[in-house]
Design a protein that fits this description.
Strand order of the largest sheet: 3-2-1-4-5
Low-confidence stretches: 58-63, 118-124
Number of helices: 5
Distance between the termini: 29 Å
Largest sheet: 5 strands, parallel
Helix content: 40-55%
Radius of gyration: 16 Å
Strand content: 15-25%
Structural class: alpha/beta
């Protein structure tokens, strides 16, 4: 039984394929979905510039993690539209480490990620690192 499925997303079209796969599997298994992402804070100069230029009523939305928040909101909306229960969490740090750590903290049964960068000749491949470090099962989805 797969009760909890985590899926890593960065908002890219290839990550969107992994999200879609995780949502379809969650529907079939009646699983709870956890959207996870890592981020690097928005550059301080960019942050200040965007806050100055934004209308007053939205300035509070501009923060160091603003890019990842919109990525997670999009995935959450897709899950809600399908009637699935979900959770989402983002954390600053190395993508592979964040995905593995959050999957473990949420005690997921399956971690779904895209294969982009899976080629063995590339050092630092996120899917490769995750597949070796994760304590849960990992599904690497063909996205390219």
């Amino acid at each position: 039984m797969i009760d909890k499925i985590a899926v890593g997303t960065d908002g890219s079209p290839t990550a969107g394929k992994a999200v879609e796969f995780a949502l379809e599997l969650a529907e079939q298994c009646g699983s709870h979905v956890i959207f996870i992402s890592s981020y690097k804070p928005v550059d301080e100069n960019r942050l200040r510039r965007e806050q100055r230029e934004a209308p007053g009523e939205v300035q509070w939305k501009i923060n160091p993690a603003e890019d990842v928040e919109s990525t997670l909101r999009s995935a959450e909306e897709m899950a809600t539209a399908r009637g699935l229960s979900w959770t989402s969490e983002a954390r600053e740090g190395d993508p592979a480490d964040v995905l593995v750590d959050l999957a473990e903290e949420h005690e997921v049964d399956l971690l779904v990620i895209g294969n982009k960068g899976m080629e063995r000749r590339l050092l630092g491949s996120i899917p490769n690192s995750v597949s070796h470090k994760a304590r849960c099962s990992v599904a690497i989805i063909k996205t390219t």
